[in-house]
Design a protein that fits this description.
The protein has helices at residues 5-19, 24-39, 44-56, 63-76, 79-91, 97-113, 116-133, 138-150, 159-168, 172-200, 216-222, 227-241, 247-264, 270-303, 306-316, 321-336, 341-358, 363-379, 385-393, 400-406, 408-423, 426-436. By secondary structure, the protein is mostly helical.
Length: 439
C-alpha cells in the first residue's frame, strides 16, 4: 500500500488543481513537484528540469508551430471558400449534398492543416449558415462539420501524430502513412451515413433549388478551387513519402505553400500574417505549457516507481492481449472526457506503450488506434473541444443541445472504426510498409 502512496498523492493533487480552476499545465506541474519534494526530496527537482529541457530541445517539435501557422494562414486565405463553392454546385443537386460536400472539404482541410480547429471553425462560418438557410435539419448540418473537422487529429500532417511520434520515438513518416487509410475510411463512412439517412428522410436535407444550380461548364470553372489544396497536400505529404524532406522540412514547405496560396487568392497582407503569427504563438504556447506540465508529472510518476507498479499490476493480472487493449481503450476514453489529447498522451502512453511493445504489437498501429479514440473525445461532452469551437461561430439559433444531439451517430461510426482497427491492425500498417518497407 505504501508503494502506491505517491501515485495517490499525484492523482489527488491533480484533481484538486483542476477542481479549483488551476490551468491543466500548472495542475500537473504543481502536483508533481509537491510529490517529488515529499517522496524523493529536493534533489529530484533538477531531474524534472532536465526532462523539461530535453523535451524543449526536441527537433520533432519544430514542425508543430510551422503546421499550426500553415493552418492559421489557410483559415484566412480564401481556399475554403473556393472549395465550398465548388462542392456546393457539384453535390448540391442531391439530398444531403451540402453536408457531404462539407465532410469532403473538412477531409481536404485536415490534409492541409493538421489540426481540428481549422475545419470546424471555417465550415462553421461558411457552410453551417448556408445549410440552415436551405432548410437542412440542424442534426444533419452540424454533425458533419464536427465529425469532419475532427479528422484533423488523424489525417496527416496531424500535429497530434507528431507529438505521439516524439513520445513513442517512432517514425513520423510511418505514422502519417498509417493515418491515411483510417482517415479516409472514416470520411467515407460519414458520407455513406449522410447519403443513406437523407435517402430515407429527404426532408432533413433538401436538394439545391434549380434556380441556384449552375451549368456543367461553370462547375468546371469552379473546379479550379481544388488546384491549390491538392498542390499543397502533395507538396507536404508527397515530399515526406517520396523521401525528399523530413516532416520538419515538409512543415516549412507547407507554411510557405499556405502563404503562396494566400498571395494567389489576393489575401496576403501584413495584417493577415501578423494575426496568423499571433494565433500560432498562442496555440503553440498553450501546447508547450501542457507538454511541460505533463513532462513534470510523468517524470515524477516514473521516478517514484508508479509506471512499473501499474505495468506489473496489469501484466500480473494475466490478461489476454485483446482484454488488455479493451481495458486500455476504456481508460483512454475515460481520460478523454476530462483532458485534452496531449495531456492524455503524456500521462497514459508511458504506462501503456511498454506493455503494447512487450505484447509484440506495433506502436505505429497503437498510435492510430489512440488517435481514432481521441477523435471520439473531441466530439463527446463535457469537454469535447470541437463542440465549443463550433458553438463560438454558429448562428444564434444553434444551441448546445442541438450540437450534442448531432454528434451521436458520428461518434458511433468512430467507435466502430476504432474496433475495426483494434481487431485488424494491418489496415493501418499496410500503407507504411508499402511506402517505407517492412521493418
Amino acid at each position: 500500500m505504501i508503494e502506491w502512496l505517491p501515485i495517490m498523492y499525484l492523482a489527488v493533487g491533480l484533481v484538486l488543481g483542476l477542481v479549483t480552476g488551476l490551468p491543466m499545465a500548472f495542475a500537473l506541474a504543481s502536483s508533481s513537484i509537491v510529490v517529488a519534494w515529499i517522496f524523493v526530496g529536493p534533489m529530484s527537482l533538477p531531474f524534472v528540469a532536465t526532462n523539461i529541457f530535453g523535451m524543449m530541445s526536441s527537433m520533432v517539435l519544430v514542425a508543430m508551430p510551422l503546421f499550426i501557422f500553415m493552418a492559421c494562414v489557410l483559415e484566412k486565405c480564401g481556399v475554403a471558400h473556393a472549395l465550398y463553392d465548388f462542392m456546393q454546385q457539384l453535390l448540391g443537386s442531391i439530398r444531403g449534398g451540402l453536408s457531404m460536400g462539407t465532410v469532403l472539404i473538412c477531409t481536404l482541410i485536415a490534409a492541409m492543416s493538421g489540426v481540428t480547429t481549422t475545419g470546424v471553425v471555417t465550415m462553421g462560418i461558411i457552410a453551417l449558415p448556408i445549410m440552415l438557410k436551405h432548410g437542412y435539419s440542424k442534426s444533419i448540418a452540424i454533425g458533419p462539420i464536427l465529425a469532419g473537422g475532427a479528422l484533423g487529429i488523424l489525417i496527416p500532417p496531424s500535429v497530434s501524430l507528431i507529438i505521439y511520434g516524439m513520445i513513442a520515438r517512432v517514425s513520423i513518416g510511418r505514422l502519417f502513412a498509417a493515418g491515411i487509410i483510417p482517415g479516409l475510411m472514416l470520411s467515407f463512412l460519414f458520407l455513406s451515413y449522410i447519403g443513406i439517412r437523407c435517402y430515407f428522410q429527404p426532408h432533413l436535407a433538401p436538394a439545391l433549388p434549380l434556380d441556384q444550380r449552375v451549368s456543367f461548364k461553370e462547375k468546371i470553372l469552379l473546379a479550379k478551387g481544388l488546384i491549390l489544396p491538392v498542390l499543397l497536400i502533395f507538396a507536404v505529404l508527397g515530399s515526406i513519402f517520396l523521401g525528399i524532406a523530413s516532416p520538419t522540412e515538409a512543415a516549412a514547405v507547407g507554411a510557405v505553400g499556405a502563404l503562396v496560396s494566400a498571395a494567389i487568392n489576393r489575401r496576403l497582407n501584413w495584417q493577415m500574417v501578423k494575426e496568423a503569427g499571433y494565433r500560432t504563438m498562442a496555440v503553440t504556447g498553450m501546447i508547450m505549457w501542457i507538454l511541460f506540465g505533463t513532462s513534470c508529472f510523468t517524470s515524477i510518476f516514473f521516478r517514484t516507481g508508479g509506471t512499473q507498479l501499474v505495468q506489473d499490476a496489469i501484466i500480473g493480472a494475466g490478461l489476454d492481449p485483446i482484454h488488455f487493449f479493451l481495458i486500455a481503450l476504456v481508460i483512454m476514453i475515460s481520460f478523454g472526457f476530462f483532458v485534452d489529447e496531449i495531456t492524455e498522451m503524456m500521462i497514459t502512453l508511458p504506462i501503456l506503450l511498454p506493455i503494447v511493445i512487450e505484447l509484440g504489437y506495433d506502436p505505429v498501429w497503437f498510435g492510430i488506434l489512440f488517435m481514432v479514440e481521441e477523435e471520439m473525445d473531441y466530439l463527446t461532452p463535457p469537454f469535447g473541444f470541437t463542440l465549443f469551437y463550433l458553438k463560438g461561430v454558429a448562428p444564434p439559433e444553434v444551441s448546445m443541445g442541438d450540437i450534442y444531439r448531432s454528434i451521436i451517430p458520428f461518434v458511433a461510426i468512430q467507435f466502430i472504426v476504432m474496433l475495426v482497427i483494434l481487431f485488424f491492425p494491418q489496415i493501418t500498417l499496410w500503407l507504411p510498409d508499402v511506402i517505407f518497407g517492412l521493418r
